[in-house]
Amino acid sequence: MTTRIPAAVPAVVNIAAALARFSDHWAQRRIAGINDYDVKVAKIQGEFVWHTHDDTDEFMLVISGRLTVRFREGDVVLDPGEFVVVPRGVEHCTAAAEETSILLLEPAGVVNTGDAGGELTKAVRELEPS
Amino acid sequence: MTTRIPAAVPAVVNIAAALARFSDHWAQRRIAGINDYDVKVAKIQGEFVWHTHDDTDEFMLVISGRLTVRFREGDVVLDPGEFVVVPRGVEHCTAAAEETSILLLEPAGVVNTGDAGGELTKAVRELEPS
Question: Per the UniProt record, which residue ranges are transmembrane (chains A, B) (predicted)?
């Protein structure tokens, strides 16, 4: 006789609740995985560093606040419920006048500052437990 | 002399506006790509078919309404701003009592009905132009 271990029912993730568990800026938290991709959230305010991801596109969805993504050819401004996909190889810089919360999706292991490096480089962390 | 063609500034996608462009149920629209993944939206109401994706996880984020995802071990219920990742190989069935809008993310080419097939099988379409 074999014993079948039932698969656990997958967890529901509430994005706002995940964001409520931390307050620091420019520090991505991983909240889920899809195959070899990370679903992450971050709070940002001010301006990041210009950088490029040569090997991957980057998905950014605004949850609250207002996000500006600067490109060398012009800026885009995103309100909640809006997203942009930054194509691989395209230099960009994120900025937010007020505190803004975003959901990010990209392959696991992508460095937040891309090719730029510097003091804003931070490893992705797991979300703090509730 | 070489002519440099400026990269276009990436488009901002408003999820609600994308959803406003169609009204049929269980018919996914592709609204963006991230590497070899499709970002899709769909409107659903009623109950889908039980199925499994053997080769990929599936991300579902509720935009409006209320989504039930049934698993053999129990159901989860998601409100707007909540998501679930259905692990590969796990049988599931989506359902919604009222019309519900969701954002989906999975590799390009995934069949909506997975291993089940049947009359609900539909190719992903590009979103209708605005």
Answer: none
Q: Looking at residues A12-36, what average pLDDT do you find?
A: 97
Question: What confidence category does residue B128 fall into, taking pLDDT thresholds of 50, 70 and 90?
Answer: confident
Quick check: B102 and B63 in contact, CB under 8 A? yes
Compute the CA torsion angle B11, B17, B19, B21 (nearest 10 deg). Answer: -100
Q: How far is A78 from chain B (nearest CA, A)?
A: 7
Test mutation, A4, A30, A31, A35, chain B, max B CBs within 10 A:
A35
Average pLDDT of span A76-99: 97
| Whether pLDDT at B124 is above 60 | yes
Look up residue A118 and give its DSSP letter.
S
* Alpha-carbon gap: B71 to the closest alpha carbon of chain A (Å): 7
| pTM of the shown model | 0.93
pLDDT digits (tens, 9 = 90+) for B96-114: 999 999 999 999 988 899 9
ipTM of the complex: 0.92
| B45 Cα to chain A: minimum distance (Å) | 20
* CA nearest neighbour of A58 among A81, A91, A30, A101: A91
Q: Is A4 exposed, middle or buried (0-12, 13-18, 19+ CB in 10 A)?
A: exposed
- CATH class, range B27-111: mainly beta
CB nearest A57 (choices: B35, B72, B81): B35
**Chain A residues within 8 Å of chain B (Cβ atoms):** 6-16, 32-35, 37, 39, 56-59, 63, 69, 71-78, 81-88, 90, 105-107
Helices (H) and strands (E) in chain A, counts: 1, 9
**Cα distance between residue B86 and residue B76, in whole Å:** 11
